[in-house]
Amino acid sequence: MPLSISDPVLTIKNRIKTDWVKANVSDILPAFHTGFLNPAGQQHQVTFPSSSEATPTDSGFDAIRSDGSTSRRMGTVACMIFGRRAATKSQHSLNPKKFVFQARAEVERIIHAAMVAETDFEYMSVIASAGIPPDTDHEPPFFGWTVQIQYVWRKTLT
């Protein structure tokens, strides 16, 4: 039987973390984690809070292959980027909106570069990208962006 990957969210998170080029993002290496924004965490974060999957067929099965039964899954992962200024005397720190813009471009670059090279997926691409209103519940506020990543993979049925 073909081997299944452990979790598409972890595959995508690990790909982005591994391929991140600090020079493309004002020499910043953010914190990468699953879950949502951690307000008490680092001032630059790339998070992977959710995913959703569906099958293109009513049964959820592909044609049975010589290596076993598999289910083809199509899904999306939200990659959320957050940045804020340092809490004290931050007049010379990087503008958080600039970080968010550069980090969004870096995530999209990584996903498009790995579109067919990512061995865990048959396909992977950015399908949507949108800003997030500033999080004014915290001071200084976080600015954010969400990149929606779509993938197709085959899950081994056990």
Quaternary state reads single chain
Main CATH class: Alpha Beta
The largest sheet, given as strand count, sense and whether it forms a barrel, is: 6 strands, mixed
Annotation, overall tally of beta strands: 6
Q: H/E series, N to C?
A: HEEEEHEE
Strand content: 25-35%
Instruction: Give the CATH topology.
Output: STM4215-like
Helix content: 10-25%
CATH architecture: 2-Layer Sandwich
Number of helices: 2
Query: Roughly what is the average pLDDT, rounded to an integer?
Result: 86
End-to-end separation: 9 Å
Describe the 3D structure.
- 19% of the residues lie in helices and 35% in strands.
- The protein is of the alpha+beta class and 158 residues long.
- Strands 1, 2, 3, 4, 5 and 6 form a six-stranded mixed β-sheet that branches.
- The chain is elongated and about 65 Å long.
- The mean pLDDT is 86.
Produce a short descriptive summary.
By secondary structure, the chain is an alpha+beta fold. It is built from two helices and six strands.
Please describe the structure with a list of short key phrases separated by commas or semicolons.
STM4215-like; six-stranded mixed β-sheet
Could you outline the blueprint of secondary structure elements for this entry?
Layout: H1 8-19, E1 31-34, E2 44-48, E3 51-54, E4 70-83, H2 96-113, E5 123-135, E6 142-156
